[in-house]
Amino acid sequence: MSVKEPSKHKSNQPRTIAITGGKGGVGKTSVALNLALTLARQNKRVLLLDGDTDLANVSIMVGLYPQKTLANVMAGECRLEDTLLEAEYGLHIVPGASGVQECMDMSPDDSLRILRALSQLESRYDYVITDTAAGLQASGLHMIAAAELACIVVTPDPASLTDAFSLMKVMKRRGYKRVPSILVNMAQGASQARSVFQRLDAAAQRHLGEGFHYLGGIWRDETLRQSVLNQHPVALLPVGDPSCRQFHTLADMLDVRLSQLPRRKAGIAAYWHSVSRKQGNVQPQKRAPKPLSVRERCMNAISELESILAQSPDNGLLRYEAFTRLFALLGGTVDSDTVEIIQTGLGAMRWESLSGERKAHLAEHLRHLADEIHPVRPVDVQAPVHETMVSEPVYDRISFGEQDQLLQALKAQPADISLDQLLKSLAGDRGSGHG
Ligand SMILES: Nc1ncnc2c1ncn2[C@@H]1O[C@H](COP(=O)(O)OP(=O)(O)O)[C@@H](O)[C@H]1O
Ligand SMILES: [Mg+2]
């Protein structure tokens, strides 16, 4: 595919933005594409890196079908420029950009060849926007780290919030220092978007010690949804159209935010180059390996986990099990963050599609975890008695034994027994052969 060179040839560093989010279906691709088209419409030179591994990717949404992708470039079959697709307003798209991760497995010479080409390409644009894959896949995390600004797309759905939270938590663990922006998609209005943001922000302040930046909201919009099916993005509608206009507002908000951030000296290719150098440096050393610290071992386990999960993003059970094993490794303490991460794992799981046996297995797991959570609930000895009394009803296992046994025992009681007698018989007489 041949594509016009962007008109001006001024060599500079583009502003780099990663559109990301913990969960699939929150609208990352729709936002990335419409934002990129809107900026292109405003005469900006825009490159959109399609790092989504989903089938509903950027190119499909504009009705373009890539002949060549980054994989062909890596195989030496074509140049990076040959993969470029040109959409309306001269927006350029690199299909299959998630493959950049695989450059790390190539020989240093080969990966350098590709990263140099990417670096030269980048320098011709004002904006480089990456649409990342869902979830905590390693390539997605790198794409966030590579960009100046991470824009995390969430929806009012609580599962998307816990996912965003987990994403940030993993990024922080990996040493991410910047403050990501939150875009609330599919909001019912400005006040809902705000309150969704505030919930997430408060959780992050509390548990991660740092909050987020609010980039804005995009409304739940039937025109936008239809536009995906019609392969005619809303950013192509007349500027006065409300569906189109909100992306102009978003573009304005983005520029305000970017103006507050220090310009990076290097772009996305440079980031990947530094990653490949780090990996490359490890191999040739033949010194005896230093024993790893607990923290390093956990970090390794986490990245292993991520790479396994990346291969089967839909395997919710695997994801869940891997997480629980990791918690065991971390010492088995279930704090409130852990609970949030478990919720995330559960949220991502397709419960309906599990077999009966797997469901039972999982239920067993959950019960186990629930038992662990119970003891860490803080007991505030200072609190006045009535407050501790009004807490959620808790089943008293010590007095009454396991719930299913209790149920059996209840069924075995004569119908005319008084409540008082019933309780006494259960508490004192448990297991003595009722029924
Ligand atoms: N603001 C919105 N209002 C209504 N539907 C939306 C909105 N944003 C996205 N969608 C729809 O949600 C679905 C998932 O969007 P997509 O951009 O593919 O998400 P992701 O890339 O996060 O998986 C698509 O059908 C899209 O049309
Ligand atoms: Mg997508």
Layout of SSEs?
Layout: E1 15-20, H1 28-41, E2 46-51, H2 58-61, H3 70-74, H4 80-83, E3 85-86, E4 92-94, H5 108-122, E5 127-132, H6 138-146, E6 149-154, H7 158-173, E7 181-187, H8 190-208, E8 213-219, H9 222-229, H10 242-260, H11 268-282, H12 294-311, H13 316-329, H14 336-347, H15 356-376, H16 385-389, H17 397-400, H18 403-412, H19 419-428
Parallel strand pairs: 1-5, 1-6, 2-4, 2-5, 6-7, 7-8
Antiparallel strand pairs: 3-4
Bound molecules: adenosine-5'-diphosphate and magnesium ion (MG).
Task: Provide keyphrases for this structure.
single chain, 435 residues, alpha/beta, Rossmann fold, 2 domains, eight-stranded mixed beta sheet, 19 helices, 8 strands, disordered C terminus, binds adenosine-5'-diphosphate, cilium
Task: Walk me through the structure.
This protein is an alpha/beta fold and 435 residues long. It has two domains: 15-272, Rossmann fold; 295-376, no CATH class. The protein contains 19 helices and eight strands. It has an eight-stranded mixed beta sheet, with helices on both faces. It is globular and about 85 Å long. The relative contact order is 0.11. The model is unreliable at 281-288, 375-394 and 429-435 (pLDDT under 50). Adenosine-5'-diphosphate is lined by residues 21, 24-30, 54, 56, 134, 185-186, 218, 220-221, 224-225, 228. Magnesium ion binds next to helix 1.
